[in-house]
Amino acid sequence: MLLGIDIGTTHTKVGVYAKDGRLLAHRQAPTPLITGTDGLSYLFLAGIWETATALLHQATQEAGVIVEGVAVASMGEAGATLDANGEPTYPVIPWYDARATPQVAALLAGLGAGIYHSPQQAVTVTYQPRQHFYPDPAWLKRYAPLYPRYLAAAQSLRRWRRELP
To answer: For labelling, which of 4, 7, 41, 136 has a CA lying 20 to 30 Å from the CA of 111?
Structure first.
């Protein structure tokens, strides 16, 4: 049997499938998002982990099968920053968060005149829109000064994992 985990912006979903593609069990819950009094949003890896593992246990118990394969998908534009032990150093900044708007402008300005004349040209060249995720580390360096001191790795959410309990 196959297990699919999707850590999405609004919901985390888990499905257990037979090898012929039949859905045997499905569970979903809101992805835990915290919005501070400053209006900025954060995702905490511990909350994401707890939600995903609870759904995983519920779905596998309902299906009553032994899982033979696992696939994980997530919001690829959001990343986790980790220390040398693989532990989070800062909450995940959601992909849609605009806190790094000044860093986006500085990044594009620093690339030099004529490289990207418009946001559409940036998409044409890189296949990625101007997103705030890319300069998030610059924002963290400025506004979370202890953050770079403990940073050892940055990974997409789908790559951050631990042993299943």
So the answer is: 41
Sign of CA dihedral 89, 92, 97, 103: positive
Supply the angle between the helices 101-110 and 136-143 in degrees, to the nearest 10: 120
Please name the amino acid found at residue 44: F
Instruction: Record the pTM.
Output: 0.68
pLDDT 10s digits, 64-122: 999 999 998 887 667 777 777 778 888 888 877 777 777 767 766 766 555 555 555 55
Give the whole-angstrom CA distance, residue 87 versus residue 66. 29
The rounded distance, in Å, linking the Cα atoms of 146 and 117 is 36
For the chain, list the strands marked E by DSSP. Answer: 2-7, 11-17, 23-30, 33-35, 41-43, 69-74, 79-82, 88-90, 153-156
Query: What is the amino acid identity at position 123?
Result: V
Query: Of the candidates 151, 165, 4, which has an alpha carbon nearest to the alpha carbon of residue 79?
Result: 151
Which domains are delineated in the chain? 2-156 (3.30.420.40)
Q: Which of 41, 37, 57 is nearest to 49 (CA)?
A: 57
